[in-house]
Amino acid sequence: MESKERLGEITEKERKLIELLRSTGFGEVRVTIQDGQLVQVEEIHKSIKL
Questions:
Q1: Are the C-beta atoms of residues 29 and 42 closer than 8 Å to each other?
Q2: Distance CA 22, CA 48 (A)
Q3: Kind and range of the H or E run holding 21
Q4: What is the pLDDT along the chain (50 residues), one digit of tens a residue?
C-alpha cells in the first residue's frame, strides 16, 4: 500500500523545505534523506572559485 506522501500529500517537513527553497534568492542547499524521509537541510553559505 502506498503512503500518503506517495499519493500527492506533502508532509510538514516537505512543506518547510519548499518554503526554504522559495525564500533562497541564490545559493546551494544540501538535502539529507534517510529511509525515504527528510532529515536535514543545509544551506551552503560560501563558495570560492579559484
A1: yes
A2: 24
A3: helix 12-23
A4: 455 556 688 899 999 999 999 998 888 899 999 998 999 999 887 777 88
Helix (H, G, I), strand (E, B) or coil at 6: helix
pLDDT tens digits along 28-41 = 899 999 998 999 99
Specify the amino acid at residue 32: T
Task: Tell me how crowded residue 5 is: count the other CB atoms within 10 A of its CB.
Answer: 13
Name which of 30, 28, 32, 21 is nearest 46 in CA terms.
Answer: 28
> For the chain, what's the residue count?
50
